[in-house]
Amino acid sequence: MPMTLADSNLLSLPMMTRGVIDTIVQESRILQLLPFQEVVGNSYLYNQELTLSTVNFYAPNDNWSEGTLTVQQKVAHLSILGGNADVDSFLQRTYANVNDLRTVAVQNKAKAVAYSFENTFLNGDISLDPNSFNGIAKLVDPTQKIAVGGANGGQLTLDYMDQLIDLIKPGKPDLILLSRRSRRKLMSLLRGAGNLFETDVNNFGQRVEFYAGVPIAIDDFQPDNLTVGTSTDCSSIYVMKLGDAGVMGLTNGGIMTEQVGNLPDQDAWRVRIKFYCGIASKALHSLAVANGVRA
User: Fold this and answer.
1) From CA 98, how far away is CA 177, in angstroms rounded?
2) Confidence of residue 65 (pLDDT cuts 50, 70, 90)
3) How many CB atoms lie within 10 A of CB 4?
4) Is 213 exposed, middle or buried (0-12, 13-18, 19+ CB in 10 A)?
5) pTM of the shown model
6) What's residue 177's pLDDT?
7) Which CATH number among 3.30.1930, 1.10.287, 3.40.50, 3.30.70 corresponds to the domain 144-244+285-294?
8) How far apart are CA 17 and CA 3, in angstroms?
9) Which helix (H) or strand (E) holds 72?
């Protein structure tokens, strides 16, 4: 059963690992919401749902036929994400009355892991970095793409937003992912229509905005300088369902911390943070994108 990283913190974990997970989740809206499936091995073979199974109405004594869903088989590989946090033993000892340098170093490395995962979740491309994993920009199906304004991009409208949301079925998306510029434009459109974003506070005490009942997440790794046709000032907006019926994270062991210890050639202590991770899109209609959103 997939669970979020925040939920995994409720399990029996070492104190440092719990602290690292807390830091990582706080730094990434994606990692607050994305459920993770535990994977045995280094890859995950799954069937992506294309169409739902069918049912019929029958008369008494009719022969019943089976209507099965249609799927395509896909595979997602786990990647190794992580880094070392090294702290000089002299500095740790002499500055302990001011700050715990080891804690600061581990927290900074945990933030770097969060930022790297979020960037790869969006922009990952194994043809450019074979050690990473494909992000949602590569996983989204061509039939689930909207060209805003045509071949050269154009202005975002509320009609485009509604059309994008309607590509997710059944039901509504769980998340809208966009850049700060696109969020400002969407806010301007809503003000012009006499509305504002709905707002609420999530479990982390953070203010969350909603459009049409769907939570909005700003992603600073969503570029606003993409080239679409002759335009070089374009951005994209993603909508998705999360979990077993949609986009979900993959991991083997979750986020782990390892006390490597004293380094042989330095008077320093090393802590290693590692995350065996990847993502999968379980259903064709669980992920959609609007491309060509111009300034």
Assistant:
1) 40
2) confident
3) 18
4) exposed
5) 0.88
6) 97
7) 3.30.1930
8) 17
9) strand 70-77
